[in-house]
Amino acid sequence: MPAQKDSNINDYAFDYLRSFYMQRFGLKKILIDKAEKTKHGYALDGLFSFNNQQEEVFIASLNTTHSAVIAQILTRYRKKGLSKIRYATFFLVLILTFCIGWNFTHWSIRFVLPVLLAATAFITHTLLEERHLKKKIASLLDDLKRAPADEQWIGLSLSSLTFRNNLLAQYFLATCKQRGIGVITVGKRAKVVMLQEPKTVTCRRGDFLSHYSAEVRIRKALLGDSYLRVA
């Protein structure tokens, strides 16, 4: 079942992005390739290739590989927040420090200090857990750097409602925006929502198509006879 679900994500995302680019650039032709690889062997889920208004090769990449992991993290955070282990940490520290403090005569050491230390442990645990989740999301997004393109997209299989009142989801969007990554979601009713458009990046040398194994085939399909003459 999970494989079928991932397939549906890709189908809806591919159709949506094809329509998006055709309308945006007024295209009549756009090449769509699934499961492409870079020349370094990194696999991505989709590659959209076409000639822009300046007749330059423009490519957009789509990544849905990490969809299930990121969706699970964001959905769980919205429904349950952070783990309940934090409370266990609080009570464990409280009991231990209370038992140790009972050996002292001063009331502040017996009663106040255990509460302060338990609260500190709870806050520290909370901050570390939030940091761990954010670091995990950032690490998954770092993976997209291995598939350079004029524009990069990440597709998630979850409802756009998951992003409401969800601080971790807002962090995810902010991180994507900072890195120029576009975000689309596909809900249970196959509704595709674009939460964020990507930032267009200019390739310093030639174009980004040169990074992919299918460069020759795609370039030939886009340029036709002009490519053959140059070659």
Structure description:
The chain crosses the membrane at residues 85-105, 111-128. Keywords: Membrane, Transmembrane, Transmembrane helix. With 231 residues, the chain is α/β, with parallel strands linked by helices. The chain folds into two domains: 2-73 and 149-230, no CATH class; 79-136. Helix content is 51%, strand content 17%. The protein has helices at residues 2-25, 67-80, 85-101, 107-142, 167-178, 215-223, 225-230; strands at 31-37, 43-51, 57-63, 151-156, 181-186, 192-196. It has a six-stranded mixed beta sheet with strand order 1-2-3-4-5-6, sandwiched between helices. Strand 5 (181-186) and strand 6 (192-196) form a beta hairpin. The chain is elongated, with a radius of gyration of 25 Å. It starts with a helix and ends with a helix.
